[in-house]
Design a protein that fits this description.
It is built from 2 helices and 4 strands, in the order βαβββα. The chain is an alpha+beta fold and 82 residues long. The protein has one domain. The mean pLDDT is 77.
Length: 82
């Protein structure tokens, strides 16, 4: 499973749980855009006013997606499973 934590402005953390989250990331100056979607599974208030930490779970990751994550994070890629 792949997940992501982001900080957002929202008055009610509990209202965020279960909602659908979408995050777009462009690691190469807009030449490639990754779109990640999944349910918000955690929402915790932080010290800043109306700021919450939101955890989004992206579920199962395909072999191709796992390979891309490994390449982008500079981890070792197992070519037998990619």
């Amino acid at each position: 499973m792949l997940g992501l934590t982001i900080y957002v402005q929202h008055p009610s953390p509990t209202a965020m749980i279960g909602r659908h989250g979408i995050v777009e990331v462009s690691p190469f100056d807009d030449s490639v855009i990754f779109r990640l979607e999944g349910p918000i599974c955690e929402a915790l208030p932080v010290r800043a006013e109306e700021t919450i930490r939101v955890g989004i779970a992206f579920g199962r990751v395909s072999a191709t997606e796992r390979y891309m994550i490994d390449v982008l994070t500079w981890t070792q890629v197992d070519l037998k499973t990619a």
